[in-house]
Design a protein that fits this description.
heterodimer, A: mainly beta, four-stranded antiparallel sheet, 11 strands, globular, B: mainly beta, six-stranded mixed sheet, 51% strand
């Protein structure tokens, strides 16, 4: 039982480069989320999805795009990376919108 | 709007001592409350949750939390700290409503727990 799997675990980008973070869950959860974690700020919601084919903005969506073409996958894209996007990114999923199951995180550094 | 505050960004206790991590919430509707734990270089995992049943909630690894509506608090306790409890702890709140639509889960800033041998 893998739960929530994030790839890649680490990535270094130069300013202006693009990349995609992949999140996969095998629990048949309806809801999926992307958070970023920064020191002293807890977790901030970037985007979320309440089902296949749907996405919505969270607290800090600027500079990010997402897609949920398949129920089990939720992709987070950075079109033009900026140093302010250096962070640890967590994907999570839930059956209903309360108890979240988190992935192990993806550490992104933008130089 | 909902919010969560956690008093103390860093707490140190001696091994065997009481652990008390404080969480206060603000919510205009009945809340669901959670404590999550994050070990180094890992994702968050659920410790316990309050969903309007018993006000004293027991979780994994000997932790428990008590919902006090009058104090808008949901403090996390453990009678005797163990070295393995060293981690980051996050309190979170969402609304207690019919889950037919999405209600945000709001996380507090976290409290880092150190256990001194």
């Amino acid at each position: 039982n893998a739960g929530v799997t994030q790839t890649p675990k680490f990535r270094v980008l130069k300013t202006g480069q693009s990349m995609t973070l992949l999140c996969a869950q095998d629990m048949n959860h309806e809801y999926m989320y992307w958070y970023r974690q920064d020191p002293g700020m807890g977790l901030r919601l970037i985007h979320y999805s309440v089902g296949e084919g749907t996405t919505a903005k969270g607290e800090v969506p600027d500079g990010y795009n997402v897609s949920r073409l398949k129920k089990q996958n939720f992709l987070l894209g950075l079109e033009s990376a900026a140093p302010s996007q250096t962070s640890v990114y967590f994907c999570a999923s839930s059956l209903r919108a309360n108890v979240l199951t988190f992935g192990a995180g993806s550490r992104l550094t933008v130089l | 709007a909902q919010s969560v505050t956690q008093l103390g960004s860093h707490v140190s206790v001696s091994e065997g001592a009481l652990v008390l991590l404080r969480c206060n919430y603000s919510s205009s509707v009945p809340p669901y409350l959670f404590w999550y734990v994050q070990y180094p270089n890992q994702g968050l995992q659920l410790l316990l949750k309050y969903t309007s049943a018993a006000t004293l909630v027991k979780g994994i690894n000997g932790f428990e939390a008590e919902f006090k509506k009058s104090e808008t608090s949901f403090h996390l306790t453990k009678p005797s700290a163990h070295m393995s409890d060293a981690a980051e702890y996050f309190c979170a709140v969402t609304s207690n409503r019919m889950k037919t639509s999405y209600d945000k889960v709001i996380f507090g800033p976290g409290t880092s727990l150190s256990v001194i041998p």
